Amino acid sequence: MSFLASFTTPFNENDDEYPISLCLEGLQHGIRISSYFGIEMARTSFVGALIQFTNLSNVAELKHKNIMAIYKLLEVVLQIGDFLKDSWQDILYVVSQVERLQLIAKGIDRNSVPDVSSSRLKSVNSRVSRDSVRSAEVMEIASESSQESAGFFGLWQTKKANPIEQAQDKHNKQSLKSDISQLLVSSEISLYIDRIFTNSADLSAIAVIDFIKALTEVSIKEIESSQDSSQPRMFALQKMVDVCYYNMERIRVEWKPMWEVMGEAFISIASNRNKNLAVVFFAIDSLRQLSMRFLNLDELQGFEFQCDFLKPFKFIIQNSSSNYEIQEMCLECFNQFIIAKGELLKSGWKPIFESLQYLASSTIMENVSTRVLNIANVILKSNVLLNKVFKHANASSSSAEKEDVFLQFIFVFRNMCKNSRFPRNALKSLDSLKRIRKYVLQNVVVDKKLNYKLTVEEFNKVWYPLLFSYHDIIMTSKDMEVRSMALTELFECLVGYGSLFTVEIWTKICRLLLFPIFSVLSMHWNIDQFSSQQLIIENNTKFTEKHWALIIDHFEKLFELTTATELFESDPLKKGRRKSILGQKQVKFDNVELNKEHTHGEAKFEDIANDNKQSIDFSNNKNDDENGDTIKSDTNESLQTVTSSSSAAVKRSGLKKQDMIRKRLSIKNTIVVKCVLQLMIIELLSELFDNEKFRNNENLKIEQLIRVTGMLERSYTFARDFNDDIGLRTRLVEAQVVDKIPNLLKQESSSAAVLIAVLFKLYFQTEEDKKNNGELMKKLMEFCVDIIQRYVSFDENKMEKNIITMRPVVIEILQGVNEFDDEDFKENSSTLYHLVLQILDKNLSNASLRLAVKQFFEKVGELFF
């Protein structure tokens, strides 16, 4: 290091050319020796000293000796470029600054060409020392005190800049001397700078990586220093492109690590949101130009260099989701590659298709989606490109990358179909898949024999990707029209070309593609119960009268299928379904008689059950006696025969018992499923009648609506009859059909509530039609009377759950009756008056019930008194 000191002091103290040239030559030899022998610390020190001698950070004080130092630095770089390693970054910073000074010397405004060193100093300036902070605070306090002393006029005094701001301002306002400007713009310096980049082709494989790393770092710093400028600095970025051209002849093993570094730099520049769009577009255009050049080079087997240098486009697209201009420019680059170099594309198809897939599924801009579809259709319509794609797909080679090309191409259209934001493009993509299907049949299946069958390998490479795309669209697309069309296309494909498939292929198709489509039907608990409601509600205006007739017919069938008749059929006494007392229209009764009826029914059932038990015991005893007589009469048989017979009998009885358990379990599950489905149908009808468009549909006749009320009526009477038959409910538990006493209170209250609501809505809707209105009124009042009679008959001590369940139905009835016009109210209030009086005997803690009763009596008072 004593050599360094001996060279530094004379250089700083002298301006004579001879001693300065000796000092620079000494530094040049020091850099060369330390580099050849790998002495990194010495090399870094000598290079740093020579860079310091250039004095580029102090433009106003540049002298002739500083220009001489620039020459020496460029000369030594050209001599020992293979050994500079990490020093390349500092050297290239100097080259960038020299190029900036050349532009300034030629008359360009210095503010439009920011200094790259300003970007490097930002991090340094942000970490100010404690002394600087303290001095700045002292100056600020002094400034504030001076403003206070200045009084009113002190408010307009400007704050004095701190030392750091003063230094930066002084640095920015420096200007070049005329003689120095002439030296900087000399052709010799420019030639040296150009040779640094042209000679990069002569660097070793390791040295060129160090050079490129330093160049990309300088490029990023240049852009950061000028990102707010209208014309950002791109000197190093342009040189990156030039270096790629100069090193085009390198072997692929050397090129791969070089491109990894450059690719990351291009991705960082093009996908950073804070970057100037001019810089981003220049970077993408540079990538495009390089790709065009690289595609002219034949890709050797086993290499994926095309995939490597096209990958930056994919990452740029994925990292610029908020900037659609960048995505469109990348798509334009893909379009040019496909049109101009499509025949040369090999592994380069993969990043192109992956980028198209990403945009097809994720973009929210219609113009980007349309651009993706257009590019995919370019591939589809061009025979040369299609042949290339299908050659990869149908090649005899088992290479995974070749099989993947056709799959990736198909998935572009698949992702487009699954993007629900643009249904028009999705339908166009399905048409494109259809054209692919026809092309596959005409060009891939070349054997035209009558009994030609595809091999499993051919099917997996060509047909399975296409069929799987249809399957995936059907299973995951959100657009119903797209799903429907995909399902049609899938079955058209299978029906039209199914003769080409072997039994093994059909097995795979059924197991992987067809059965999963219908698998949801085997898991009814996972079915979205609201899908059918939405289908009918959203499309009810599109249905004709015939459609509604079919829908009502299916509803009736569903009600029949979901009616849990097993509840009565499983009765051990086989008494069947019995009408409840209220169901037989016995209006006059009281609570005492009803309680007696229930008590008598329970006692009667106990007697029947006891008699049944005795008869069973008797039959068992009789069987025991017969068995005893048989045993006595067969005392001469051997003990072994008796033992084997007993074992067989025990085994048969065990199997019989298991069958009975399975049968009871099956009945129980059937009852539960039917009850749940019946409630879902009732809920569906409720939602339908809540929809005004459904009720006012011209194609839906009043007769069909009355048929719907008939369904609800049957559901209500079924649940009511079952709930009133306490004997049957108890026997079902005794017979182990169910675990606890069952009830259909939910079905009874739900069907009654929906029935009453529907009848009221239909009544008020058809007021002008006297005939229908009269029939509806009659039907409505019958059910209102029946339900209120049932409500007031409940014993509050024993049937509290029934009261709570039916109370909302009673409230709805009273509210609906209160809305009658005066004439209808007078006609029907006499029927309901005494029943409403009986409601007063019940618990009126519910505020809604109290209000409904009060309004009823108020209206009675207004009309009759």
Q: What do you see in this structure?
A:
This is DUF1981-domain-containing protein. InterPro entries: ARM-type_fold, Mon2/Sec7/BIG1-like_HDS, Sec7/BIG1-like_C. It holds the Pfam family Sec7-like_HDS. The protein is elongated. About 13% of the residues have low confidence. The termini are far apart. The protein contains 37 helices and no strands. Among the domains are: 201 residues; 178 residues; 187 residues, no CATH class. With 865 residues, it is an all-alpha fold.
Key terms:
single chain; mainly alpha; 37 helices; 0% strand; ARM-type_fold; Mon2/Sec7/BIG1-like_HDS; DUF1981-domain-containing protein
Return residue spans where pLDDT drops below 50 for at least 5 consecutive residues.
121-159, 392-399, 582-646
Mean pLDDT: 78
Ends distance: 123 Å
The portion of residues forming beta strands comes to under 5%
Helicity range: over 70%
Number of strands: 0
Taken from the alpha-carbon principal axes, the silhouette is elongated
Radius of gyration: 46 Å
Number of helices: 37
Sketch the major β-sheet.
none
Question: Which class best fits the helix and strand makeup?
Answer: mainly alpha
